[in-house]
Amino acid sequence: MSGFCLCRDRCKNCYLGKYLYKAAVLSSGAKAFCGWSIRGTDSWVGFVSSILWFWRYLLLLSETRWALIHPIHRVVWAGLSPHAPCRALQGFNVNLVTTDRVSALHEACLGGHVACAKVLLENGAQVNAVTIDGITPLFNACCSGSVACVNMLLEFGAKPQLGNHLASPIHEAVKRGHRECMEILLAHEVDIDQEDLQHGTPLYVACTYQRTDCVKKLLELGANVNMGKRLDTPLHAAARKSSMEVVILLTDYGANLKCRNAELKCALDLAVPNSKVEQVLLLREGNDFLSSLF
């Protein structure tokens, strides 16, 4: 193993050394199996050897993602001191990615490690790098709820709103109940009614996950109270979740009680019978009816 060490101290546990060793085994295993398949084998020993190599090949193949993670990913994932990544960065490309195209900056933001993220950005890390799942570092920062990471990424040029095919940072912030992250994104001109094909609008997500603080703030900032996910409105989501406080907030801001979704159901149809939500909706419908008479 010492021959594979790239740490300059000939350690026996060099991560890069282990990676190279695994790569060699993978390559040899594939060749051994293919060689046996094509040429056949002269003895049972050759057959067993080929099978063993191929078995090791399969085992190591299952570790492919971690086998291709650079030591710098491990450093920032662990959230070590700012000096540790500085040493790890020496002579390495900060934009190296895993097989899933996850960068060290993705890992740092997901862990909320601001110091590590700053070092990476200062050394040229791509602030808008995208994984194969459409995840950006800003999305990960919103996932972790790190306000400091969100602010720093935006300062370094992160795009707060990307294409519809990419995971939306504001939807993730709302889903997790990270109101401050949500407010920062809205202050950077993110569309408050941005409709995600999978999740709907931020307000709809807030109602679905019963994030009352986010619901209140979105309504205060002017979110469309009737815009949700296709024909489903935020009120539909709140009634479905039996969230009385959210239902009251939405109706106070003028939610349309008569809107029907794709199943031709209004919010009242989705409320649990004899529940407080049903009572609130019936009361609001009665008030609307009385108001229409005068």
Automatic annotation (TrEMBL):
Keywords: ANK repeat, Repeat, Ubl conjugation pathway. Pfam families: Ank, Ank_2. The keyword Cytoplasm does not apply. ANK repeats lie at residues 100-132, 133-165, 165-197, 198-230, 230-262. Belongs to the ankyrin SOCS box (ASB) family. This is Ankyrin repeat and SOCS box containing 11. The keyword Mitochondrion does not apply. InterPro entries: Ankyrin-SOCS_box_domain, Ankyrin_rpt, Ankyrin_rpt-contain_sf. It comes from the Eukaryota. SUPFAM superfamilies: Ankyrin repeat.
